[in-house]
Design brief:
With about 220 residues, the protein is of the alpha/beta class. It is built from 9 helices and 9 strands. The structure holds iron/sulfur cluster.
């Protein structure tokens, strides 16, 4: 009966359930449990669960969409090209990456094959719903001063599908899941800018948004 209540959807022989999260205040225990999660079909084609990294009580929690190709192979969040640009922006904003908690709304890499390449696929609302209990547990245990949503998927995981990063970026917001939230773009969007000038402009705005989050965390 309990299993039935936790089921989200079934399609093409696949099933989506709410992730089964242990009652614990230990990040190590959560990470170990998430390593065996099979609540949605994404684990089948991914190398491993990429759980969040950082410590309890971090002033900032950075929330991305899902691990990419490099993250899937290494088991660590934000270590690929987007991670490199994130590191540079954090440093420029005066934020020590080692002092923040970094995670994703979905913990397994969703991709499709194109030739020999694994191309990123956006997680569906079913994927996000199945994985949400892990994010809720991370927020409950880490209790960050400010949650920074990197990109639309992360922001919509917190505020719902009607949220628009373009309208709300860089503002200090409130949500039921985290008392203080700042939304900004995903660092991978900076890599997709068409020319150097827009890359520079978007990068500067991104750093500015990170500074808003840092200032808010200090004002606690
Ligand atoms: S994506 Fe999330 S819910 Fe789906 S199997 Fe991985 S950890 Fe579990």
């Amino acid at each position: 009966m309990k299993e039935r209540a936790r089921k989200i959807a079934t399609s093409n022989g696949n099933e989506w359930r709410l992730a089964d999260v242990p009652e614990t205040s230990s990040l190590t225990t959560l990470r170990a449990a998430a390593a065996h999660c099979t609540a949605c079909p994404l684990y089948k084609n991914a190398t491993q669960t990429v759980f969040g990294e950082g410590r309890k009580g971090a002033a900032l929690m950075l929330l991305g969409e899902q691990p990419g190709d490099r993250e899937d192979l290494s088991g660590k969040p934000f270590v690929g090209p987007a991670g490199n640009i994130l590191n540079r922006a954090l440093e420029e904003a005066g934020i020590d990456r080692n002092a923040v908690y970094v995670t994703n709304a979905v913990k397994h890499f969703k991709w499709e094959a194109r030739g020999k390449r694994r191309i990123h696929q956006k997680p569906s609302s079913r994927d996000l719903a199945a994985c949400r209990p892990w994010l809720e547990a991370e927020l409950r245990v880490v209790r960050p001063g400010v949650l920074v949503c990197l990109g639309a998927t992360a922001a919509q995981a917190i505020f719902g599908s009607g949220f628009r990063v373009t309208r709300e970026r860089g503002k200090l917001l409130r949500s039921q899941l985290a008392p203080r939230v700042v939304a900004t773009v995903h660092p991978s969007s900076l890599l997709r800018q068409p020319d150097e000038e827009s890359r520079r402009r978007e990068y500067a705005l991104f750093v500015e948004d990170l500074r808003v989050a840092l200032d808010a965390s200090r004002a606690e």
